[in-house]
Amino acid sequence: MATEPVLEFDKISKTYQDPFPRRSIDAVHQVSFRVQPGEIFGLVGPNRAGKTTLIKILLTLCQPTSGKAFRFGKPITDRSTLMRVGYMHENQAFPRYWTAHGLLQYYGALGFLDEAIVRDRVPQLLKQVGLADRAHEPIRRFSKGMVQRLALAQALLGNPDLLVLDEPAEGLDLQGRQLVHDAVRQQKQAGKTVLLVSHQPSDIEQLCDRVGVVVGGSLVHQGTVADLLKGKSGTPRSMETVLRGFYEQTRS
Ligand SMILES: Nc1ncnc2c1ncn2[C@@H]1O[C@H](COP(=O)(O)OP(=O)(O)OP(=O)(O)O)[C@@H](O)[C@H]1O
Fold this sequence. Notes:
Layout (H helix, E strand, L loop, with lengths): L6 E12 L4 E13 L4 E5 L6 H8 L7 E6 L2 E2 L9 E4 L11 H11 L4 H14 L15 H13 L5 E5 L7 H16 L3 E5 L3 H7 L2 E6 L2 E7 H6 L8 H13 L1
Parallel strand pairs: 3-8, 3-9, 6-7, 7-8
Antiparallel strand pairs: 1-2, 1-4, 4-5, 9-10
């Protein structure tokens, strides 16, 4: 039986119109890829490549200028499938007067999650991300890494079928990064799907099944991590070397 992709982008382009100064910016150009259920898919590229724009389209936060996109088989404009997505932003700005515990409960209510499930899950998640001892303090007293850990807990709260992590390592210490790795692996074990945007070659190498490389708004490569690291000659290479190659090629 054919399985439906969790995510499908078909020739997606996005041009932003800037009023001052008046100009248009081609952020994404004719990008096509699919993410299958149970897959850990990495999206990599240099600064300004168009990764965040693709994530915004995935989350229906902005509309593509052309092309078609589907989430769980439904048009990306169908917001009902957003309930199945958990999203961790690279620079999460939570209301600073909430406590970590209160915030997760609030997000649970916003996501129409079952109250009893949220009651059980919130302390579990706070423990998982190492915030159990600070659960009842206002977020304004949190360090950057603590906010990132809370962002991970928030993304996992709804037990999502698709977990989208945008630069999850940002501001995290080694233990924090390990938490992210563990969460990704747990999702995979549960048969769920992860889209990981990262500037960390080692994270892509260690976690992802397949990777899409975006440079200058175009998808210049997609394939398995194993094939990428093997190269055409069969000589093993590091992910950092591979990515540098893609980024340099397009600069010249
Ligand atoms: N709201 C916007 N209005 C105008 N231009 C934008 C807007 N958002 C992004 N852009 C432009 O689109 C291009 C791609 O930006 P995007 O944020 O998607 O890149 P990115 O790959 O996520 O970069 P980074 O790794 O630096 O976060 C950039 O040239 C950026 O200036």
